[in-house]
Amino acid sequence: MRELDPERLPVHLAIIMDGNGRWAQQRMLKRIVGHQRGAETVNMVVEHAWRLGIQYLTLFAFSSENWSRPAIEVRALMSLLKKYIRKETARMMRKNIRYNVIGNRSDLPVDVNETLDEAIKQTSVNTGMTLTLALSYGGRQELSMAARRLACDVRDGKITPDDISVENFGTYLDTGGLPDPDFLIRTSGEMRISNFLLWQLAYTELYFTETNWPDFTINEFNKALIDFQSRERRFGKTSDQISPRNKPSNA
Q1: Which listed residue (18, 174, 180, 182) is catalytic?
Q2: How far apart are CA 133 and CA 58, in angstroms?
Q3: pLDDT digit string (tens) for 118-127?
């Protein structure tokens, strides 16, 4: 395996953490055991991303569609989330990592929101990596809410229709202030983005692996990052336009 180039890592990495339940079912275990093992993988990924110097890490932790799962599983997931945040906040402080949350938080239980508020407040002074948790998040819902906020600003005279652009529309999204992801990883073999960051992923490099999230190791992580570094990111240009051979010799 090639070695990682520290100069060519994604600035913003997004991950759809999929396969916890399947991992557990394959082992004749309860689904919550898979989620518990998945939380251990989260710890590893956050630590490794921090050590590599990745500036933004966004994890799809709970989608707006996940509320339709069995109530007992949803309650267990909320309890696991609250426990994770409480346990890991001290480590985030040591690592200078800032918590951020996107999604419809009004759907979350009160005690979970209180725990999130405290963690966000406590880590707001940190200036290192930003760890964003997407909770009760859906991309279509985010876009519709952004359009509603934009429409209100037009109605109130804060902005005119002629002022609307790709750049300023992004400021109405939950991720306003964050750069768009350079790289998206999805585990467990599903090859779709599942209503995640629909606007933000327009030019993101996508990577899919058959590995279930609890089995996603540092080696698997590095393998994905090496694949990212093999990509040619043209953003509509030709290869010749971005090739080093076309740069002036004194550049």
Answers
A1: 18
A2: 6
A3: 999 999 999 9
170 annotated ligand-binding residue: no
Ligand-binding annotation for 194, yes or no, is yes
Q: Which two tokens stand for residue 142?
A: 């985010």
Which residue among 5, 43, 66, 246 is the active-site one?
A: 66
pLDDT at 247: 45
Cα–Cα distance, 204 to 195 (Å, whole number): 14
Does 5 appear as a known binding residue?
no
Q: Is 18 a catalytic residue?
A: yes
**Start-to-end CA span in the chain (Å):** 31
Looking at domain 9-138+180-231, its CATH class is alpha beta
pTM value? Answer: 0.93
**Using one digit for the tens of pLDDT, what is the confidence trace for 140-153?**
999 999 999 999 99
Residue 129 amino acid letter:
M
Quote the strand ranges of 190-244, DSSP E. 205-208
Q: Where are the domains of the chain?
A: 9-138+180-231
Tell me if 21 is assigned to a ligand binding site. yes
**Sign of the torsion angle spanned by Cα atoms 142, 204, 221, 122:** negative
CB burial string 188-221: b at 16+ within 10 A, e below: beeeebebbbebbbeebbbbbbebbbbbbeeebb
Does residue 182 have an active-site annotation?
Answer: no
